[in-house]
């Protein structure tokens, strides 16, 4: 199977995401960036992308 290179935004860390303040801050910073990229892609490239919901 051949899988193409893909680019992702992600949060890397450890601990309990339900109680770690660093995780909440990272998610708070990540979502505006993700939505900006989503709408820029739709506007400039004509491609919409799906943002995956946070699990947990």
TrEMBL record:
<dbReference type="InterPro" id="IPR011256">
    <property type="entry name" value="Reg_factor_effector_dom_sf"/>
</dbReference>
<protein>
    <submittedName>
        <fullName>Uncharacterized protein</fullName>
    </submittedName>
</protein>
